[in-house]
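Work Package 4 report. The design task specified in the project plan requires that, given a folded chain encoded as structure tokens, an amino acid be chosen for each position. We show below one input record used in the internal validation round.
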């Protein structure tokens, strides 16, 4: 769903960056998974919808009945009118691995994504189709009660030449899990959500879409993910949690913040920043301070407990299992400081409403979704 993970930082090495939105080659044996996630924000209604889909190659020794190919639709419902807060619900569909067809440029996946080529792939099952061609995304998924379809425009990349939040870290061979953001705010060309039972159809053209991808062994034992955009070209995305390398477990974060009006394009990861964070899944609260060389960011996130979903699915070594909770009604407060001689100067402060906030694994309330 939405995760980063890399390793403890060693000496900075010179490596190229890559666009990892295209599919990767699966190993002969698991565990391995690959999953895509997009979140659509409709500025006309302040509503948002999530779509996630992926495939788990489980460990050979498992007899688990957990689904291996899954897609989920996330949608807000049961809204409280006086404060426009809504609980997040999910609708899920599954199929067998043999019914999944993934191609790159209309051919089987035989090599991993290269450094700079734009993505061009199709992910298709009996219940859904997702294509990325010439930087235009189209999707059509049938969840039984709901049909979700649309067309999305050009991406706004995280960085140049396909660079993602991990930067050079995604090249390290021992990293157990990866997080790549393909687009911070692609324009919505058109989307529709049809309630098959009632005939209700909602849709629009005034909005943006955040798109990202994860791949690796499994989601971690505990994590935080958050993302949001505003109408005024302000956006952020962050992910972090427990990174396990053999017997060593550490807590690390990745974060990016954009404010075009103030020429702020800030990216932080192990190696160029230090992080201090607290989380409270039982209270729907998260805070982080990011200490970079030239800037410092203070971010606080909160969401009413009534807006969080029940346990959503995430990829584990035996298949997809209920692993996390999420809200699309989080309020994010961000303050950016610039370092000056012996002091900090506040240069930006923003409130981004209707953001996403996710607690996973051990970071859920009393580990309610650990499985």
């Amino acid at each position: 769903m939405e995760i980063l993970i890399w390793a403890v930082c060693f000496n900075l090495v010179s490596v190229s960056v890559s666009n990892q939105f295209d599919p990767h080659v699966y190993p002969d044996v698991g565990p391995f998974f690959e999953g895509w996630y997009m979140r659509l924000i409709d500025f006309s209604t302040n509503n948002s919808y999530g779509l996630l889909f992926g495939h788990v190659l489980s460990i050979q020794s498992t007899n688990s009945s957990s689904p291996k190919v899954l897609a989920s639709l996330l949608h807000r419902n049961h809204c409280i009118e006086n404060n426009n807060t809504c609980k997040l619900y999910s609708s899920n569909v599954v199929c067998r691995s043999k019914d999944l067809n993934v191609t790159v440029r209309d051919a089987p996946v035989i090599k991993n994504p290269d450094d700079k080529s734009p993505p061009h792939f199709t992910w298709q099952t009996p219940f859904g189709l997702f294509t990325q061609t010439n930087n235009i995304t189209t999707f059509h998924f049938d969840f039984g009660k709901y049909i979700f379809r649309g067309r999305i425009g050009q991406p706004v990349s995280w960085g140049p030449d396909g660079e993602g939040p991990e930067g050079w870290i995604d090249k390290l061979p021992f990293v157990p899990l990866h997080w790549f953001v393909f687009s911070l705010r692609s324009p919505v060309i058109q989307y529709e959500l049809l309630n098959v039972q009632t005939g209700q159809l909602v849709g629009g053209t005034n909005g943006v879409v955040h798109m990202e991808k994860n791949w690796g062994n499994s989601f971690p034992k505990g994590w935080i993910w958050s993302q949001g955009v505003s109408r005024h070209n302000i956006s952020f995305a962050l992910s972090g949690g427990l990174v396990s390398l053999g017997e060593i477990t550490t807590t690390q974060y990745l974060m990016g913040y954009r404010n075009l009006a103030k020429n702020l394009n800030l990216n932080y990861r192990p190696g160029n920043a230090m992080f201090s964070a607290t989380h409270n899944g039982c209270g729907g609260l998260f805070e982080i301070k990011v200490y970079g060389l030239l800037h410092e960011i203070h971010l606080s996130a909160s969401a009413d407990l009534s807006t969080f979903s029940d346990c959503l699915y995430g990829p584990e070594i035996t298949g997809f299992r209920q692993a996390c909770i999420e809200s699309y009604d989080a309020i994010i407060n961000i303050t950016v400081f610039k370092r000056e001689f012996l002091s900090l100067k506040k240069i930006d402060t923003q409130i981004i409403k209707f953001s996403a906030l996710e607690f996973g694994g051990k970071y859920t309330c009393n580990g309610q979704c650990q499985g």
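The domain at 32-367 is CATH 2.40.370.10 (AttH-like fold). Validation will be extended to a larger panel in the next phase.
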